[in-house]
Amino acid sequence: MILADYIAERLDKPFKYGVNDCVIFSIGWIEIKTDKKYLPEKLWTTEKQAIALTKKNGGLIEVFDKHFKRIEPNYAKDGDLTVCDGVASLFSGSSIVSVSKTGLVNKSRLEATNAWTV
Fold first, then answer.
1. SS3 sequence of the chain
2. Residue 19's CB: how many other CB atoms inside 10 A?
3. What angle do CA 4, 45, 32 make, to 5 degrees?
4. Are 87 and 96 in contact (CB under 8 A)?
5. Is 98 left (phi over 0), alpha (psi -120 to 50) or beta?
6. What is the per-residue pLDDT across 7-50, written as a single tens digit (0 to 9) for each?
7. Would you say residue 81 has pLDDT above 90?
8. Separation between Cα atoms, residue 43 and residue 47, nearest integer Å
9. How many CA atoms within 13 Å lie on the side-chain side of 85?
């Protein structure tokens, strides 16, 4: 599967914590790309649970630092990770893409102040 197909498959998928949220979307691609499991067995089902788990582990940036190689955002390739405004996202072309409660969201990749690769 290529990144464009992965993103296209999620165009009409509704937001749901632990099923289709920013972390599931971003790490889901990394799991496909690497054939390695990163998501925990027991997933969150509410916003409160997601926030609590994230805080317990030091935040998304800390979690990504533990599992992935931090790189300069200007060198990020399609499918690399970023956290922008507290939201896990993927680099894709001139954008970063993530899932929000209203669907997929694209922002300029210039907004990314951090990046990780596998």
1. CCHHHHHHHCCCCCCECCCECHHHHHHHHHHHHHCCCCCCCCCCCCHHHHHHHHHHCCCHHHHHHHHCEEECHHHCCCCCEEEECCEEEEEECCEEEEEECCEEEEEEHHHCCCEEEC
2. 12
3. 30
4. no
5. beta
6. 999 999 999 999 999 999 999 999 999 999 999 888 999 999 99
7. yes
8. 11
9. 13
